[in-house]
């Protein structure tokens, strides 16, 4: 329990990279565990999901949204109705400009767990505001485009989409 509190403290202090490193260390140790029965296996899976969610949250806070999505996907593969994984992945999608993916995750949250409705609706409102901020009017034709910025590296290759 002491270790869990320390990692949470690091996260709350904004030391996301250090907290992530601690969570990763525990996850690596989990790779060597073989649950003895179904009950132990269930507890193992829940703990692994919790650790992966903490890693995903660290990635999100560090601005590495693609890794956050990938880590949330691990959790959702193990538990497709993990509401916190849907929320975190939706927030990461929103940050990368994948608005439809974000919307789908937030709506799925509400269909899975009615108690998540407040958080999902708040996220959908933030999503709507973010989308509107990236709409650029095209003058007289009355249309909009959604702006995405794709950086080009010094070698001429494009990187990921960022805002």
From TrEMBL:
Residues spanning the membrane: none
TPR repeat feature ranges: 83-116
Pfam families hit by this protein: TPR_2 (PF07719)
Keywords for this protein: Repeat, TPR repeat
InterPro entries in the cross-refs: FKBP6/shu, TPR-like_helical_dom_sf, TPR_2, TPR_rpt
Protein name: Uncharacterized protein
UniProt source species: Lactuca saligna (Willowleaf lettuce)
């Amino acid at each position: 329990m002491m270790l869990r509190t320390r990692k949470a403290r690091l996260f709350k202090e904004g030391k996301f990279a250090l907290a992530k490193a601690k969570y990763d260390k525990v996850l690596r140790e989990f790779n060597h565990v073989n649950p003895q029965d179904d009950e132990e296996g269930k507890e193992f899976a829940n703990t692994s999901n919790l650790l992966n969610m903490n890693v995903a949250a660290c990635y999100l806070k560090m601005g590495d949204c693609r890794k956050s999505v990938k880590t949330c996907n691990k959790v959702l593969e193990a538990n497709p109705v993990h509401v916190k994984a849907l929320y975190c992945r939706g927030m990461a999608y929103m940050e990368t400009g994948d608005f439809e993916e974000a919307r789908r995750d937030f709506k799925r949250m509400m269909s899975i767990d009615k108690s998540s409705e407040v958080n999902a609706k708040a996220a959908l409102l933030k999503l709507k505001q973010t989308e509107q901020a990236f709409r650029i009017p095209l003058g007289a034709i009355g249309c909009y485009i959604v702006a995405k910025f794709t950086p080009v590296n010094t070698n001429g290759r494009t990187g990921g989409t960022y805002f």
